[in-house]
Request: fold
Amino acid sequence: MKIAVISPDTHHLSNIQDILAKANKPYSIVGIIGGVQQIVAVVEQEQPDLLMLEGQDFSPADLQTLNRITSRFPELGMVLLCPPQPTEHLLEIMRAGVREVLSTPLDSNTLIKAVERFQQRFSLARMPVNQCKVLAFIPCKGGSGATFLATNIAYALAALENKRVALFDLNLQFGEASLFVHDSPPTTSIADVARQIQRLDGTFLASSMIPVLPNFGVLAAPEEPEQALEVKLEHIKLLFQVAMQHYDFVIIDIPRALNAISIYVLDLADLILPVLQQTLPSVRDAKRMSKSFHALNYPDEKIRMIINRYEKNADITLSDIEETLNMKMFKAVPNDYAVVNKSVNHGIPVVKLEPRRPVTKMLQEIAHELSHGVDQRSLFKKLFS
Ligand SMILES: Nc1ncnc2c1ncn2[C@@H]1O[C@H](COP(=O)(O)OP(=O)(O)OP(=O)(O)O)[C@@H](O)[C@H]1O
Ligand SMILES: [Mg+2]
Reply:
């Protein structure tokens, strides 16, 4: 951290520099003889993180200059060192954007503590932002298995890959995603979050979701379809803004309809995973959907089509589909009526219910690849060549 100290008095300046040097911290310190008028030059030349300005008195003109400086360099920390000030003057100093005022003559401990407080805020602000991935699952045709895959892959990411996962059911009118991984109906939904949007932060979001696992929550669709009307695009935007700071994966189950909300989510998604089956109507709809994605200017790498209920010997083969859609499929999830039906009927994810079945193994593989960023296409080739 770089600290610039400005003071009109040589003796005071070296005193402050000495105290900072004795703190035994890796601070880089520059000292300048001067006052308010020197600040801009010092900031532009030295680019300090923290500026300490020492002086006897700060006139209204000085405060105006300080105000301009704190607005122009909002990242710069500013500490004023001056004799004790009356409360009204302190308030004016604060209004000029100065967050800390220390009284002189200086007590070295107070000075070091103030710098440490700034250092803490400074480190927090520079912590790498959470690298959240947004995955949107969308059925090419109704009943393709998008909800089954979204919920079960979300569960696998949390249970097996140790990721913090949030799943949002954006089938606002008839969504039931939570029931795929949880055995009782939800008590809160996305409509409750929309109604209290001003309270939304990480804690409120977590408490509004069904805690399937300590690191996996589902934000359910509203119980009553008419409540869906309460959820607006503005709410969804805030929901993502908050969620992306707290989770490694935000998984979205979205309906087929293209509307303002679904397009917002598709734009935002790192990957879109359309789900289709080996039937002509499904492939036809997949073709239409991929045309829409083209029209929306999504790059091919953003789309990862999944064939669900895959049967090797079906009339329409994998290569038929790839040829028709002119696109490699990301994965093929085996058909397993007995296991999937049991899982869906009991609200128990297949990873927990039947970990050894081929359908489960494929979901584990998908979760693993999504969390490790392996080149999915080459792996797919290996599996089906
Ligand atoms: N791999 C599979 N093997 C066998 N059955 C499956 C498989 N995947 C899904 N199913 C069955 O298909 C049904 C429909 O799946 P799901 O509700 O996930 O589809 P969807 O694409 O979300 O449909 P909707 O358009 O209603 O949102 C599920 O109830 C499940 O029983
Ligand atoms: Mg669904």
In short: The two ends are 55 Å apart (CA to CA). Residues 139, 146-147, 171, 253 surround magnesium ion (ligand 2) (CB under 6 Å).
